[in-house]
Amino acid sequence: MKIRFGYGRVSVVTYTFARAALLSKTSPMNSDSTILKETCAICLENVDVLKMFSVDYCFHRFCFSCVKKNVEVQLRQGIVPKCPFEGCRSDLEIDSCTKLLTPELIEIMTQCIKEARVPFTERIYCPNSRCSTLMSKCEALEFSEMKCKNARESGARKCIKCCESFCVNCKVPWHENMSCYDYKSSHIYSCSKDAALDSLAKKEGWRQCKKCSHMIELAVGCFHMTCRCGYEFCYTCGMEWREKKPTCTCPRWDECYIIRN
């Protein structure tokens, strides 16, 4: 059993007795567990209690199928999965979800949790296309100062994973003896790749977040997009959503993104 302390967490004793009380209401009194059913709060189907998922700490229960679909939608939007119960803000524990999710989704969930722990303004991603490791600015600086001199003054950083050097100011591989402006003006790195990316984005119908400039692709769902930086916008025109409402008149969805073949 995992123990957590702090605001919003129940004590170990409360957690233990609450769990025991819940199980006493749902566990069968005989060896034939298949006769005991429980209603899922999402699909309202009567489901075998052994196929029900219990959220840690809040104890809201749903069938495996509904939780899996709910978690996948949240992960595809770059959101750390939370309890599906309306108004509940309990985070889902990754250890509890391993039996529900594919290895791909577990990896996405791990990345989402890691990103959520680093404030957006502090995030740095390794520009090495084979790495793209997430770091905080503080973490990258501390690691770089152990590896190279004048890291703080020069802006040079080393990735904590692949150890490739890069510029923290313009987010490209390190350009020694050359300013960021001169480096970009030389067309050595970014211009041709940016043009190729813009061309590919137009071809594939991708959209760019106006706040952080990350490229986003809609795989499934409505046109209300939430970037990993937290910015919400319309996938069709790019206009901002405010207080969960659009500022444009574009359609909210297209059936081809809602209904999977």
From TrEMBL:
<comment type="similarity">
    <text>Belongs to the RBR family. Ariadne subfamily.</text>
</comment>
<protein>
    <recommendedName>
        <fullName>RBR-type E3 ubiquitin transferase</fullName>
        <ecNumber>2.3.2.31</ecNumber>
    </recommendedName>
</protein>
<comment type="function">
    <text>Might act as an E3 ubiquitin-protein ligase, or as part of E3 complex, which accepts ubiquitin from specific E2 ubiquitin-conjugating enzymes and then transfers it to substrates.</text>
</comment>
<dbReference type="GO" id="GO:0016874">
    <property type="term" value="F:ligase activity"/>
</dbReference>
<keyword id="KW-0436">Ligase</keyword>
<keyword id="KW-0862">Zinc</keyword>
<dbReference type="GO" id="GO:0016567">
    <property type="term" value="P:protein ubiquitination"/>
</dbReference>
<dbReference type="InterPro" id="IPR002867">
    <property type="entry name" value="IBR_dom"/>
</dbReference>
<dbReference type="GO" id="GO:0008270">
    <property type="term" value="F:zinc ion binding"/>
</dbReference>
<dbReference type="InterPro" id="IPR018957">
    <property type="entry name" value="Znf_C3HC4_RING-type"/>
</dbReference>
<dbReference type="Pfam" id="PF22191">
    <property type="entry name" value="IBR_1"/>
</dbReference>
<feature type="domain" description="RING-type">
    <location>
        <begin position="40"/>
        <end position="84"/>
    </location>
</feature>
<dbReference type="InterPro" id="IPR044066">
    <property type="entry name" value="TRIAD_supradom"/>
</dbReference>
<keyword id="KW-0863">Zinc-finger</keyword>
<feature type="domain" description="RING-type">
    <location>
        <begin position="36"/>
        <end position="254"/>
    </location>
</feature>
<keyword id="KW-0833">Ubl conjugation pathway</keyword>
<keyword id="KW-0677">Repeat</keyword>
<dbReference type="InterPro" id="IPR001841">
    <property type="entry name" value="Znf_RING"/>
</dbReference>
<keyword id="KW-0479">Metal-binding</keyword>
<dbReference type="InterPro" id="IPR031127">
    <property type="entry name" value="E3_UB_ligase_RBR"/>
</dbReference>
<dbReference type="InterPro" id="IPR013083">
    <property type="entry name" value="Znf_RING/FYVE/PHD"/>
</dbReference>
<dbReference type="GO" id="GO:0061630">
    <property type="term" value="F:ubiquitin protein ligase activity"/>
</dbReference>
<keyword id="KW-0808">Transferase</keyword>
<dbReference type="InterPro" id="IPR017907">
    <property type="entry name" value="Znf_RING_CS"/>
</dbReference>
<dbReference type="Pfam" id="PF00097">
    <property type="entry name" value="zf-C3HC4"/>
</dbReference>
